[in-house]
Design a protein that fits this description.
Elements: H1 4-25, E1 50-51, E2 56-58, E3 66-73, E4 91-99, E5 102-110, H2 114-120, E6 139-143, E7 146-150, E8 158-160, E9 166-169, E10 185-187, E11 192-197, E12 205-211, E13 217-224, E14 234-236, E15 240-245, E16 248-250, H3 252-257, E17 263-265, E18 272-277, E19 286-289, E20 294-303, E21 309-316, E22 332-340, E23 345-352, E24 356-360, E25 372-377, E26 391-396, E27 402-406, E28 411-413, E29 417-420, E30 430-438, E31 443-450, E32 460-464, E33 474-478
Antiparallel strand pairs: 1-5, 2-32, 3-4, 3-33, 4-5, 6-7, 7-8, 8-9, 10-11, 11-12, 12-13, 14-15, 15-18, 16-17, 18-19, 20-21, 21-22, 22-23, 24-25, 25-26, 26-27, 28-30, 29-30, 30-31, 31-32
Length: 480
């Protein structure tokens, strides 16, 4: 907790730093050829739509009753291109309601931050906010019959209606004190959600936050860190929550230079994976060193019989090092990490060296050994998390094989989520649901694939008559 002296110093220094930041922001050059995350396939949508009578090819499975939801950055007004970073854009949620074998509607709605409400000429929405930021643009989840848009770095969750209109900024009914994450992980055994959370204005602490079955915070355990690391995701095993403390950290230099996303690559920070006891003290976290790299997203994790922790991760050579507009880095690949809590080391094995991201799996297997990972190919151009790949991968961890589904030139899949056909269906016995952008036609498809017939014809394709920009994460939220 900050002392009175620290608070006094911050109160005096913060306005000066803000003035320097704003002055320098106006001096940043606009990218030559336009901002890469505001042009081309990333060009933002400019209106909110409500569409019915959607065209469908094939047959939507009768068992599906719920909403496919996806979210991503979509500025409501033209940002300052010199300082704009893909990760800070105003949030826009997209949803398709499916029931009775029909696609009942498509809707897209901006998440009403104060900035969005002001841009749209609307009254600001109620609720508690982090004074530094109130944008939620990274993930959208169903929780105890409610819908929340969520984000990392200190922004509080935003509660939405089933139709995606903003209700209020809601830190889980006042039970969240510090920050949340874009990636909570559900434990089907306990009914809890676990997340590792950081606040951009707090450099020495992250928190293990747990939501109970009632959707309220039951644990906010502090874990000591340094330098203000950006921890995008985590994973859980039966006994641990994994903390990826890697060299992407807060940069005072970038902040004062005027960049909206003030993080940079700093190998001197070091790289380590923490095993925090799920029910113990953050001070008892076991830290295991790893070579410098960055992980945005893991797939599954579990504990081996000899007490090691196994986690499959998409690994990036670095991030934020080579660009101020997006993630950057030279390469990404799929690896299996074996974390040894006794030797305090991490063994890395390359599973697939193709550039890829957004790994998903059958989340009913959380904390247990599993077989399949589904993720998307990246185009493989350095210095950006390029969403212009055209392939979806299915990795078989048991056989070591990989299937590749190619959607064709100019057709770009986003993250696909696995949905089981029934609660007791076998792993891989279900559907993969996700958006595919047809860049040439400026249209989008919501495709429903059979996971266990990965290369076969789609079960159904729902056509949307416009291009949805590449976003971040999507989920299937079943009707309650």
């Amino acid at each position: 907790m900050a002392s009175v002296i620290e608070k006094t110093i911050r109160a005096a220094v913060t306005p000066v730093m803000g003035a320097v930041t704003n002055f320098n922001r106006k001096r940043l050059a606009t990218p030559e050829g336009g901002h890469p995350y505001l042009t081309g396939v990333h060009k933002p949508m400019t209106e909110e739509l409500t569409l019915a009578d959607l065209k469908v090819d094939g047959e939507i499975p009768a068992q599906l009753d719920g909403r496919y939801l996806r979210i991503g950055p979509n500025p409501a007004s033209a940002p300052d291109e010199g300082s704009y970073h893909w990760f800070v854009g105003d949030g826009m949620a997209h949803g398709v309601r499916i029931a009775g074998g029909k696609a009942e509607w498509y809707r897209n709605r901006w998440i009403r931050s104060n900035q969005v409400s002001d841009a749209l000429g609307e009254e600001r929405k109620p609720g508690d906010r982090n004074p530094r930021t109130d944008t939620a643009n990274t993930n959208i989840i169903g929780l105890n019959g409610r819908t929340f848009a969520i984000v990392e770095a200190g922004g509080f969750p935003v509660e939405l209606t089933d139709e995606l209109d903003t209700i209020a900024h809601n830190p889980f009914d006042g039970t969240l004190d510090h920050a949340f994450s874009a990636h909570p992980h559900f434990d089907p055994k306990t009914g809890e959600m676990h997340a590792i959370c950081y606040n951009a204005s707090t450099f020495d602490t992250v928190w293990h936050v747990v939501l109970g079955e009632d959707g309220r915070v039951s644990r906010q355990e502090p874990i000591a860190v340094k330098d203000g690391p950006s921890i995008h995701d985590c994973q859980i095993t039966e006994n641990y929550v994994l903390v990826f403390d890697l060299p992407a950290v807060f940069s005072m230099k970038r902040m004062l230079a005027g960049f909206e996303f003030p993080y940079d690559w700093n190998p001197e920070h070091g790289a380590r994976v923490g095993l925090c006891p799920r029910n113990g003290s953050g001070a008892d976290t076991i830290w295991c060193d790893v070579e410098p790299c960055y992980v945005y997203h893991p797939a599954g994790a579990f504990e081996s019989d000899d007490g090691k922790v196994i986690v499959d991760v998409v690994v990036h050579e670095s991030t934020y090092a080579r660009t101020t507009f997006g993630p950057g880095g030279e390469w990404s690949r799929l690896e299996r990490w074996t974390v040894d809590p006794v030797a305090k080391k991490v063994d890395r094995k390359i599973l697939d060296d193709r550039p890829q991201e957004f790994p998903r799996y059958d989340e009913r297997t959380a904390t247990r050994p599993y077989r399949y990972i589904y993720d998307i190919a990246l185009a493989g151009r350095p210095d950006e998390l390029d969403m212009a790949g055209s392939e979806l991968f299915k990795h078989d961890l048991e056989s070591g094989s990989k299937l590749v589904r190619d959607f064709g030139p100019g057709r770009h899949p986003g993250e696909f989520v696995f949905v089981p056909r029934s609660p007791d269906a076998a792993e891989d016995e279900g559907w993969l649901i996700g958006l595919v952008i047809d860049a040439g036609q400026e249209k989008t498809e919501l495709q429903i694939l059979n996971a266990d017939d990965f290369l076969g014809e789609p079960h159904a394709v729902i056509h949307l008559p416009h291009r949805i920009p590449p976003g971040f994460h999507g989920n299937w939220v079943a009707s309650v």
